[in-house]
Amino acid sequence: MSWRRLWVLVSRLPRESATVTADLGEDRAAWSTQTELLAQVRDLIAQANWLFASAHRGRGPEPPRPEPLPRPFDD
Questions:
Q1: Which of 29, 9, 13 is nearest to 21 (CA)?
Q2: What is the model's pLDDT at position 23?
Q3: If you ran DSSP here, which 8-state letter would residue 74 be given?
Q4: Is 2 helix (H, G, I), strand (E, B) or coil?
Q5: Beta-carbon count within 10 A of 12 CB
Q6: Rounded CA gap, 73 and 25, in Å?
Q7: Contact between 34 and 25 (Cβ < 8 Å)
Q8: pLDDT(25) > 80
Q9: CA 30 and chain centroid, separation
């Protein structure tokens, strides 16, 4: 087996594989691209709701800013 073939096989491993989990860490490997996109959608919807509530609050207190969903790889 050539080095190139080995590199191709290892680079195409699924995120659930032991090699990728060991390389990225358990927390980061658990977050797929789909999970990250869903977290971003959730954050954007929360921000849009906050903007709407802030614009239509009248004389009441300003609603609290939404906190972004914590990511396992953000330190």
A1: 29
A2: 83
A3: -
A4: coil
A5: 8
A6: 9
A7: no
A8: no
A9: 10
Q: Maximum distance among all alpha carbons in the chain?
A: 72
**Residue 60: which H helix or E strand, with range?**
none
N- to C-terminal Cα separation, the chain: 40
pLDDT number for residue 75: 60
pLDDT cut 90: percent of the chain above it: 43
Residue 68 makes CB contacts below 8 A (sequence gap 6+) with 43
52 pLDDT band, cuts 50/70/90, is very high
d(CA 62, CA 50) in angstroms, rounded, equals 9
Q: Does the predicted TM-score (pTM) go above 0.70?
A: no
